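User: C-alpha cells for this one?
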Amino acid sequence: MNEAGKFLVYVGAAIAIVGGLIWLGFGSWIGKLPGDLAFHKGSFGFYFPITTCLLISIVLTLVLWLFRR
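Assistant:
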C-alpha cells in the first residue's frame, strides 16, 4: 500500500504543476503547434492535434522512465 500512496502523491503533484503552468499562460501553445490539423467548413469543424499529442507522449514517456529508475 505504501507504493500506491507514493504513486498517487507523484501523480497529484504532476497534475498540480501542469495545471499551474497552464493557468499562468505557459500552456498557450498547446494545440497550436505546426502539424496540428484543423478543418473548418461552414458550421462543421474538425480538429486533431497530432503534433501536440506526440509532444505530450514524449514528455510523459521521459517522466515515467525517470520515475521508474
